[in-house]
Amino acid sequence: NAGVMQNPRHLVRRRGQEARLRCSPMKGHSHVYWYRQLPEEGLKFMVYLQKENIIDESGMPKERFSAEFPKEGPSILRIQQVVRGDSAAYFCASRKTNGNTIYFGEGSWLTVV
Amino acid sequence: QQQVKQSPQSLIVQKGGISIINCAYENTAFDYFPWYQQFPGKGPALLIAIRPDVSEKKEGRFTISFNKSAKQFSLHIMDSQPGDSATYFCAASMLSGQNFVFGPGTRLSVLP
After folding, report:
1. In the structure, what pLDDT confidence band is assigned to residue A77 with cuts at 50, 70 and 90?
2. Counting beta carbons within 10 angstroms of the beta carbon of residue B97, is it exposed (0 to 12), middle (13 to 18) or buried (19 or more)?
């Protein structure tokens, strides 16, 4: 049973470009969470989604950031017009309905140059 | 009220010693308390978890102690090994799975 799959693992973007990070949850999991982690810092909640619904986006910046989890396919975190401050590791986690625990992927490291 | 506090920020322990990391929460609606272990360049991995109906849970060298009245819980790593050197995050959530809140993390270094 494959774990949470994230890609790309590493992504370099120039300022002003767009970054798209993908997350395929574990099989049977329909809940997805995105977290951001700056170097030497903790996990900052961004958004919580179920299939086709955003449940909680209170941690996501209002501008330039968006997330989706379509009925088919992976969840996508999209960052438009990236700036240097967006450089971070972005972790996706998934959970099954009625499950207690969230399981993390290996992360996507975004570097903005 | 959604915050989870964690201490210490960093911890250095000799091999064979006991590592203790403490966490505290405010929201009494939290009813699930996991600990995650993260190695550099990797995603956090579930280590051990507890619900508030028990005061202690042990898995191998790892033990969670839970004090419901004080709204505190702690991770004890017995016979700490250099391979335990990692960052540890406590977390709290409701069984509904929403409001999964993490502490700021503790960087543990176990000296050989």
Report:
1. very high
2. buried
